[in-house]
Amino acid sequence: MRAYGHFIGGKAVAGTSGRTAPVWQPMTGEQIATVSLATASEVRAAVENAKAAQPEWAAVNPQRRARVLMKFLDICNARADEIADRLAREHGKTVLDAKGDLQRGLEVIEFATGAPHMLKGEYTTDAGPGIDLYSMRQPLGVVAGISPFNFPAMIPLWMCGPAIAAGNAFVMKPSERDPGVPLMFAEIWLEAGLPAGIFNVVNGDKEAVDAVLDDPDIKAVSFVGSTPIAHYVYSRATAAGKRAQCFGGAKNHMVVMPDADMDKTVDALIGAGYGSAGERCMAISVAVPVGKATADRLIEKLIPRVESLKIGPSTDAGADFGPLVTKAHLDKVKGYVDLGVTEGAKLVVDGRDFSMQGYEGGWYMGGCLFDHVTTDMKIYKEEIFGPVLSVVRAGTYEEALGMINAHEYGNGTAIFTQDGDAARDFAARVEVGMVGVNVPIPVPLSYFTFGGWKRSSFGDLNQHGMDGFRFWTKTKTVTSRWPSGIRAGADFIIPTMK
After folding, report:
1. What band does 171 get if pLDDT is binned at 50, 70 and 90?
2. What average pLDDT score do residues 109-134 get?
3. Could you tell me the CATH number of the domain that includes residue 120?
4. Active site residues per annotation
5. Same domain, 122 and 178
6. Are 372 and 427 in the same domain?
7. Residues 211-249: b if buried by 16+ CB within 10 A, e if exposed
8. Residue 275 per-residue DSSP state
9. What is the CA radius of gyration of the chain?
């Protein structure tokens, strides 16, 4: 059985706390590894190591730093099958989905190779008589990321790529449920030429998280997880004087207009609602058909598609989705389905009793579909994070829009329509950070920015795109004036704009 420790100063380091957590293989329900849970002193050791290494890395010019990122890309692409297999076995998503997880992360690394351009400052000559103004972006120093279980490749890469490219040293605290891939990244960074100490990994639970948030040498923290923890991390990090970007939960709605192509809409809903067993912060978990006829047609087409979803082990190339991440999470999701029935929603497809032949110990669940869900139900208000789709019927477009804007979450949303006016109005007025028009999962590409609104996000700057470089750097502005010397004699008057 594999034993995960930490990765500090360019080498694997065994944990010293005496505390460990199991790492499970969801498709079989078997424990496949243990992971050490760090103490505050172990976190501090990782930070001190990073702090010592960072100045030399910051002194490397951006072009050379970018070349390390290019090499990292090459190695990850060459080892993609190995990375995806480890990811799938520890998380439960299919290998094909795991490759998508990795690819989305590598796209941000690709963008970050443009660091020489992203880090350019601004320059104004003759802002005043003989006065020039210029700015420069400089690294923060030691920074940290705290990533969730559901994207063990993508989210760490979203965090560390721009941070490292900008000249920072990065301390990663991955999810203790699936730490294998971030530890692989640590080895690959080293192989790519990144100096030891610039990417350290510390595994742990709340003790490690609190140590990261309280450490005076960590200047910024990026977090992705549930909203209550995102709020906690943001509050504690900012109270300690750090900059923080914290991304939380979601309840993503898809509005289905009467003119929508229903076959394409159903295809989109199936993938966006049930892919990765619904364990995505950008999963569509609520469909909002406008008008009774639209709702009836949608349900009629959805039922056979949900019933025919192919659930299989993570290694099954033909599976639509695999098991859930833990037995506790499976029980939680099933509990929500039970609650929905109690609340009066109509469960038209019930996947609670699904069992995978030959993998009876795995944490599998079939797709569930609710109709006639109302906005006062808990299954509507709260994030379920499983293969459960709720249909909430709206009488009008304005009712559908108002429903989304009233919800506490504002991560992603979509509208399916052939009406450009409706789509344009929706994009302009909906109070959500990421909007899809006939696109079910509107995750922007790496050169745009990712982030939600309302209680889906805490902090002023989003992930990747230019916001990534803005978050991981500080701006210094220089006002420069050179008093005339030999040419005109010394001038000791303070520079002014006159």
Report:
1. very high
2. 95
3. 3.40.605.10
4. 281
5. yes
6. yes
7. bbbbbeebbbbbbbbbbebbebbbebbbeeebbbbbbbb
8. G
9. 25
Residue 495 lies in a domain: no
Say if 389 falls within a structural domain: yes
**What DSSP designation does 167 have?**
T
**Cβ within 8 Å of residue 224, ≥6 positions away:** 146, 147, 148, 151, 155, 230, 246, 247, 281
Can you tell me the mean pLDDT for 483-491? 65
CATH code for the domain of 338? 3.40.309.10
Domain that holds residue 391: 252-437
CA distance 261 to 494: 69
Dihedral-angle region of residue 188 (phi above 0 means left; psi in -120 to 50 means alpha; beta otherwise):
alpha
Phi, psi of 23 (to 5 degrees): -110, 120
Is 405 inside any structural domain?
yes
* DSSP string of 300-367, one letter each residue: HHHHHHHHT--B--TT-TT-SB---S-HHHHHHHHHHHHHHHHHT-EEEE--TT---TT-TTS-----
Are 210 and 298 members of one domain?
Answer: no
DSSP bridge partners of 288:
255
Which residues sit opposite 336 in a β-bridge?
none
Mean pLDDT of 383-405: 98
d(CA 438, CA 165): 34
Tens digits of residue pLDDT in 71-108: 999 999 999 999 999 999 999 999 999 999 999 999 99
**Residues 36 and 120 grouped into a single domain:** yes
The first and second tokens of residue 156, run together, are: 């760490």
Domain total of the chain? 2
- Within 361-408, strands assigned E span 368-371, 388-391
Amino acid at site 439: V
Confidence class for position 483, pLDDT limits 50, 70, 90:
confident
Q: What pLDDT is stored for residue 490 in this prediction?
A: 64
Q: How far is CA 341 from CA 296, 330, 338, 372, 403, in A?
A: 20, 17, 5, 11, 22
Q: Do 211 and 261 have their domain in common?
A: no
Taking alpha carbons only, the member of 166, 165, 145 closest to residue 156 is 145
- CB 5 within 8 Å of CB 203: yes
> Are 340 and 204 part of one and the same domain?
no
Same domain, 8 and 101: yes
Mean pLDDT of the chain: 96
Nearest 5°: phi and psi at 113? -65, -15
Which string of b and e fits 323-343 if b means at least 16 CB within 10 Å? bbbbeebbeebbebbeebeee
Residue 396 corresponds to which tokens in the numbers above?
A: 């009008």
Q: Do residues 179 and 57 share a domain?
A: yes
How many angstroms separate the CA atoms of 91 and 102, rounded?
Answer: 13
Distances (CA, A) of 187 to 8, 10, 59, 107: 11, 8, 23, 19
Contact 427, 437 (CB under 8 A): yes
Q: Is 309 inside any structural domain?
A: yes
